[in-house]
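Q: I have 108 residues here and want to know how they pack in 3D. Can you give me a structure?
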Amino acid sequence: MHGNGFRKWMLAPVAAALLQEAGLILVPFAAAVGFLASRAQPARWAVRIVIAANVIWAVDSTILLFSDWVQPNAFGIAFVVAQAVVVALLAELEVIGLSRAKAAPTRG
């Protein structure tokens, strides 16, 4: 598919502005998460912010489907639900990792 074909096929009609705003949020978020992940011991407060952001993203994605902002086709609905579930699972794994990091003995 070319140009806007994928967007039209997947989530038609999702406003281009909504997708651009999502990209404007996700690019710096991914950079911040990458930086955080590169630290030997990331700050716990920063990890909690990432977890909260992922939970909010998953919940907001689900709410989006019940709003009148978008009217996705069946595949679009399945895609949004799947990505919301994946992001929620990622948040859960982050919580598990944070709790295990807290329980691990410190080296010194």
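Q: Anything worth noting?
A: The chain is about 75% helix and 0% strand. The CA atoms of residues 92 and 108 lie 29 Å apart.
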